Amino acid sequence: MKFKYFLIAATLPVLFFAATACDDDDDDKVVIEQSDTTKTVMPENDGTVSYLTVTVKVNYPEEFKTVDAALLNGRTVKLAGTEATLTAETDEKGVATFSQVIPGEYSVSTSWTITAADYTAATEKQVSNNKYTVSGTLASEIISENAEKTVSLIVSEKSALVIGKVYNEGRKYTNGEGKSTNFDNGKYIEIFNNSDEDVEVAGLYIGLVEGNSTVAYKLGVDPKNIYMKQIFRIPEGTPALAPSKTLLIVNSAFNYTEYEDQDLSGADLEAKDTESKKPIQNNEQTKALSLVYTSMTTLTYMNLTQGGPCGVAIFSSDYDFEANLDQDVYADGKTSGNKQFPVPVETIIDAIEILKYKNDGSVDLEQKRFYDYIDAGEQHSDATTGRSGIVYVRKVDKEATKEAGRTILVDTNNSSNDFTASKTATIREY
Known about the structure:
- The longest helix is centred in the first third of the chain and has 8 residues, at 116-123.
- The strands form five sheets. The protein has a ten-stranded antiparallel β-sheet with strand order 2-3-6-5-8-9-10-1-4-7. Strands 15, 16, 19, 20, 21, 22 and 23 form a seven-stranded antiparallel β-sheet that branches.
- By secondary structure, it is mostly beta strands.
- It has helices at 69-72, 116-123, 398-404, 415-418, and strands spanning 5-15, 29-35, 38-43, 52-59, 76-81, 85-89, 95-101, 104-115, 131-143, 147-157, 161-167, 171-174, 180-183, 188-193, 205-209, 225-233, 246-250, 269-270, 290-294, 312-315, 329-330, 339-344, 348-352, 354-355, 379-380, 391-394, 419-422.
- The protein contains four helices and 27 strands.
């Protein structure tokens, strides 16, 4: 994700018919070919189900003055729910048809890449970036009656740097006495160079979004800023990042394999814990990640909250944070409590939204801090209290990787599409 973005509208005319619920046991699921352009993963029909039909039509915005069939045809749309996961491709009119939909709660998502030539031909605007990502989503949509919905899609420049992994969950391990014990020292972030050139990372910032129980500034209240509880800077002297290489940033650069975690002793940067009453162990041999701002003086390490919410962003700015630390603010309408620092949205290079999983089995989408043009989706752990051992890992773009002869990661500005939750992830590997 890069600085320039545009909005696109997609409408969803939806037709519904009565149906009964099905068992959601994965063992009963089969793959059904609905047509040449549709594939469904869903439970077997025991004869009691009356399927719904859902059509999704994507519309380019007014800026796209010339939209031919090539820009509309063959775009994959995904309809994902607890009872079924379906994908369908759009036809030459931009319509994707799902003919076997079970009533329930679904998310709708789509993303694709267009070239600079495509963009210029459609908009008559000259652009310099090589490729642009089109993406968008609707989350937690209840499909239960006739409806016509609109999803806002985003067109953004592909970024050189992306967040490759976030490990905020921590884990439990079995100690020598056979007891299950919490272990949080192994948390980390990886930044990945998705371009084909060396990229300078010194001077870039990492922001951790405020994680108050109530969002400090709900989306739309202040559309110019994202509010951070911590800001760190990658120090001068940090080497440029080579293509398809990672920058590993940790809280504690030691080998933690005996705790059923990973060997972080070779980390590039470490956030030093200097103020905690029981500080996290730090490695004097590992270069320090510079702390610029923290909402609480005792938090000098990366406060990657297990269980969420835990938003992470990388951004670039010439702003003198150290000289303006008094610019932090209380939550909207408050005069006390936690403070947070506003960071302009146009400075954000990439971000991932990790949300809290509620006891009722749903995701708390009201806790989103990032606008859709920054991250149109979210990730979450199914463990309500965290410490699941899950690492959020960006997926490999297999087609682009094969073409380039080096690892390239998926980047559609939608963490629901771009990331997967893994308990077997290995640092610096994708």
